[in-house]
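Assess this today:

___
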Amino acid sequence: MNKSFLCIIPARGGSKGILNKNIVDLNGHPLIHYIINAAKLSNIFDRIIVSTDSKTIAEISVKEGAEILFLRPSFLSTDDSMVEDTIVHALKFIENEDKKYDYVCLLQPTSPLLEGHDIKKVKDILLKKKAEIIVSVGENPINIEWTISLSDDLSLNKLSGKACSTNRQNFEKTYFLNGAIYMGEWDIFYNKKDYYSQKSYAYIMPYEKSIDIDSEFDLKIVKFLLNEKEG
Protein backbone atom coordinates (compact mmCIF):
# COMPACT_ATOMS: atom_id res chain seq x y z
CA MET A 1 0.00 0.00 0.00
CA ASN A 2 1.42 3.37 -1.02
CA LYS A 3 2.10 5.84 1.78
CA SER A 4 1.13 9.50 1.52
CA PHE A 5 3.64 12.29 2.13
CA LEU A 6 3.02 15.92 3.05
CA CYS A 7 5.77 18.55 2.79
CA ILE A 8 5.66 21.68 4.95
CA ILE A 9 8.09 24.55 4.42
CA PRO A 10 8.03 27.25 7.14
CA ALA A 11 9.05 30.66 5.79
CA ARG A 12 8.20 33.69 7.88
CA GLY A 13 8.68 37.20 6.60
CA GLY A 14 10.83 38.63 9.38
CA SER A 15 14.54 37.96 9.84
CA LYS A 16 17.41 39.57 11.73
CA GLY A 17 20.63 38.62 9.95
CA ILE A 18 19.43 39.14 6.36
CA LEU A 19 16.50 41.37 5.37
CA ASN A 20 13.68 39.28 3.82
CA LYS A 21 16.00 36.28 4.06
CA ASN A 22 13.63 33.63 2.73
CA ILE A 23 13.23 35.46 -0.58
CA VAL A 24 16.64 37.11 -0.84
CA ASP A 25 18.18 36.83 -4.32
CA LEU A 26 20.46 33.82 -4.65
CA ASN A 27 21.97 33.51 -8.13
CA GLY A 28 18.88 34.90 -9.81
CA HIS A 29 16.26 33.06 -7.75
CA PRO A 30 14.57 33.81 -4.42
CA LEU A 31 16.08 31.65 -1.68
CA ILE A 32 12.86 29.68 -1.18
CA HIS A 33 12.98 28.58 -4.84
CA TYR A 34 15.71 26.06 -4.08
CA ILE A 35 13.89 24.12 -1.38
CA ILE A 36 10.57 24.11 -3.23
CA ASN A 37 12.36 22.89 -6.34
CA ALA A 38 14.12 20.15 -4.37
CA ALA A 39 10.78 19.04 -2.93
CA LYS A 40 9.27 18.88 -6.43
CA LEU A 41 12.25 17.03 -7.88
CA SER A 42 12.10 14.39 -5.13
CA ASN A 43 8.76 13.33 -6.62
CA ILE A 44 7.54 11.85 -3.33
CA PHE A 45 5.05 14.42 -2.04
CA ASP A 46 1.30 14.47 -2.40
CA ARG A 47 1.34 18.15 -1.40
CA ILE A 48 3.97 20.84 -0.86
CA ILE A 49 2.75 23.57 1.47
CA VAL A 50 4.47 26.78 2.57
CA SER A 51 3.53 28.26 5.95
CA THR A 52 4.21 32.00 5.97
CA ASP A 53 2.93 35.24 7.44
CA SER A 54 4.08 37.23 4.39
CA LYS A 55 1.87 37.92 1.36
CA THR A 56 5.00 38.44 -0.75
CA ILE A 57 6.47 35.07 0.22
CA ALA A 58 3.06 33.50 -0.37
CA GLU A 59 2.87 34.90 -3.92
CA ILE A 60 6.41 33.79 -4.74
CA SER A 61 5.81 30.32 -3.28
CA VAL A 62 2.74 29.79 -5.45
CA LYS A 63 4.71 30.84 -8.54
CA GLU A 64 7.40 28.32 -7.56
CA GLY A 65 4.83 25.52 -7.37
CA ALA A 66 3.88 25.27 -3.70
CA GLU A 67 0.48 25.68 -2.03
CA ILE A 68 -0.56 28.42 0.38
CA LEU A 69 -3.50 27.38 2.56
CA PHE A 70 -3.41 30.30 5.00
CA LEU A 71 -1.32 33.20 6.23
CA ARG A 72 0.35 32.17 9.45
CA PRO A 73 -0.83 34.12 12.52
CA SER A 74 1.56 36.69 13.98
CA PHE A 75 2.03 34.85 17.29
CA LEU A 76 3.69 32.03 15.33
CA SER A 77 5.92 34.41 13.38
CA THR A 78 8.09 36.06 16.01
CA ASP A 79 11.82 35.59 16.60
CA ASP A 80 10.95 33.36 19.56
CA SER A 81 8.36 31.21 17.80
CA MET A 82 9.09 27.50 17.69
CA VAL A 83 9.00 25.70 14.36
CA GLU A 84 7.29 22.75 16.08
CA ASP A 85 4.29 25.02 16.85
CA THR A 86 4.22 26.21 13.24
CA ILE A 87 4.04 22.61 12.01
CA VAL A 88 1.26 21.71 14.46
CA HIS A 89 -0.70 24.77 13.31
CA ALA A 90 -0.44 23.62 9.68
CA LEU A 91 -1.39 20.03 10.49
CA LYS A 92 -4.46 21.12 12.46
CA PHE A 93 -5.55 23.30 9.55
CA ILE A 94 -5.21 20.35 7.18
CA GLU A 95 -6.98 18.02 9.61
CA ASN A 96 -9.91 20.44 9.63
CA GLU A 97 -10.12 19.83 5.87
CA ASP A 98 -10.72 16.19 6.84
CA LYS A 99 -7.34 15.21 5.47
CA LYS A 100 -4.42 13.39 7.01
CA TYR A 101 -1.16 11.99 5.62
CA ASP A 102 0.94 9.03 6.68
CA TYR A 103 4.15 11.03 6.81
CA VAL A 104 5.13 14.67 7.21
CA CYS A 105 8.35 16.27 6.00
CA LEU A 106 9.68 19.55 7.35
CA LEU A 107 12.04 21.30 4.94
CA GLN A 108 13.87 24.54 5.74
CA PRO A 109 14.20 27.23 3.03
CA THR A 110 17.54 28.23 4.58
CA SER A 111 19.06 24.94 3.38
CA PRO A 112 19.25 25.61 -0.37
CA LEU A 113 21.90 22.96 -1.05
CA LEU A 114 19.54 20.13 -0.12
CA GLU A 115 18.59 18.27 -3.30
CA GLY A 116 15.70 16.17 -4.48
CA HIS A 117 17.68 12.94 -4.33
CA ASP A 118 18.51 13.65 -0.66
CA ILE A 119 14.80 13.84 0.13
CA LYS A 120 14.17 10.62 -1.79
CA LYS A 121 16.95 8.85 0.14
CA VAL A 122 15.44 10.00 3.44
CA LYS A 123 12.11 8.50 2.41
CA ASP A 124 13.83 5.22 1.50
CA ILE A 125 15.61 5.07 4.87
CA LEU A 126 12.38 5.90 6.70
CA LEU A 127 10.47 3.05 5.09
CA LYS A 128 13.32 0.53 5.10
CA LYS A 129 14.04 0.98 8.80
CA LYS A 130 10.34 1.37 9.67
CA ALA A 131 11.45 4.46 11.55
CA GLU A 132 9.25 7.02 13.22
CA ILE A 133 11.43 9.89 12.07
CA ILE A 134 14.60 10.59 10.08
CA VAL A 135 16.64 13.74 10.80
CA SER A 136 19.42 15.13 8.64
CA VAL A 137 22.86 15.72 10.13
CA GLY A 138 26.02 17.25 8.73
CA GLU A 139 29.55 15.93 8.98
CA ASN A 140 31.34 18.01 11.59
CA PRO A 141 34.52 19.63 10.16
CA ILE A 142 35.89 20.31 13.66
CA ASN A 143 36.40 17.44 16.04
CA ILE A 144 34.69 17.83 19.37
CA GLU A 145 37.95 17.03 21.14
CA TRP A 146 39.31 20.35 19.84
CA THR A 147 36.44 22.47 21.16
CA ILE A 148 36.86 24.11 24.54
CA SER A 149 35.41 26.85 26.69
CA LEU A 150 37.70 29.73 27.64
CA SER A 151 38.04 31.40 31.03
CA ASP A 152 38.25 35.17 31.38
CA ASP A 153 42.06 35.11 31.21
CA LEU A 154 41.93 33.14 27.89
CA SER A 155 44.01 30.29 29.29
CA LEU A 156 44.36 27.20 27.09
CA ASN A 157 44.99 24.80 29.95
CA LYS A 158 41.79 22.93 29.13
CA LEU A 159 43.17 21.98 25.72
CA SER A 160 45.37 19.07 26.62
CA GLY A 161 45.65 15.30 26.59
CA LYS A 162 44.07 13.48 23.67
CA ALA A 163 43.39 16.65 21.67
CA CYS A 164 47.07 17.52 21.58
CA SER A 165 48.51 14.07 21.02
CA THR A 166 46.21 12.50 18.42
CA ASN A 167 46.26 12.95 14.66
CA ARG A 168 43.06 14.41 13.23
CA GLN A 169 42.31 11.36 11.08
CA ASN A 170 42.32 9.13 14.17
CA PHE A 171 39.44 10.93 15.86
CA GLU A 172 35.98 9.45 15.73
CA LYS A 173 33.70 11.26 13.26
CA THR A 174 31.10 13.54 14.79
CA TYR A 175 27.97 15.13 13.35
CA PHE A 176 25.70 18.10 13.99
CA LEU A 177 22.00 18.68 13.39
CA ASN A 178 21.95 20.71 10.17
CA GLY A 179 18.21 21.50 10.27
CA ALA A 180 17.65 20.74 6.60
CA ILE A 181 15.11 17.94 6.76
CA TYR A 182 12.89 16.17 9.26
CA MET A 183 10.67 13.38 7.92
CA GLY A 184 8.47 11.20 10.05
CA GLU A 185 5.06 9.95 11.04
CA TRP A 186 2.17 12.42 11.18
CA ASP A 187 1.59 11.84 14.91
CA ILE A 188 5.20 12.62 15.82
CA PHE A 189 4.79 16.14 14.46
CA TYR A 190 1.15 16.58 15.45
CA ASN A 191 1.76 15.72 19.09
CA LYS A 192 5.07 17.63 19.21
CA LYS A 193 6.91 14.60 20.50
CA ASP A 194 10.65 14.85 21.02
CA TYR A 195 12.01 14.26 17.52
CA TYR A 196 15.06 12.44 18.86
CA SER A 197 13.71 10.14 21.58
CA GLN A 198 11.53 8.21 19.17
CA LYS A 199 12.65 5.44 16.85
CA SER A 200 14.78 7.96 15.00
CA TYR A 201 17.73 7.70 12.63
CA ALA A 202 20.13 10.09 10.94
CA TYR A 203 20.58 10.96 7.29
CA ILE A 204 24.19 12.09 6.83
CA MET A 205 24.94 15.04 4.57
CA PRO A 206 28.42 16.36 3.77
CA TYR A 207 29.44 19.59 5.47
CA GLU A 208 29.40 21.58 2.23
CA LYS A 209 25.70 20.72 1.71
CA SER A 210 24.75 21.40 5.32
CA ILE A 211 25.10 25.18 5.32
CA ASP A 212 22.14 26.88 6.99
CA ILE A 213 21.89 30.46 5.75
CA ASP A 214 21.82 32.81 8.72
CA SER A 215 24.19 35.59 7.66
CA GLU A 216 25.56 37.41 4.62
CA PHE A 217 28.70 35.30 4.96
CA ASP A 218 26.66 32.08 4.67
CA LEU A 219 24.98 33.54 1.59
CA LYS A 220 28.35 34.26 -0.05
CA ILE A 221 29.53 30.70 0.59
CA VAL A 222 26.39 29.20 -0.92
CA LYS A 223 26.60 31.48 -3.96
CA PHE A 224 30.16 30.27 -4.49
CA LEU A 225 29.18 26.60 -4.15
CA LEU A 226 26.26 27.01 -6.54
CA ASN A 227 28.51 28.73 -9.09
CA GLU A 228 30.99 25.85 -8.78
CA LYS A 229 28.19 23.32 -9.27
CA GLU A 230 26.66 25.14 -12.25
CA GLY A 231 30.05 25.92 -13.81
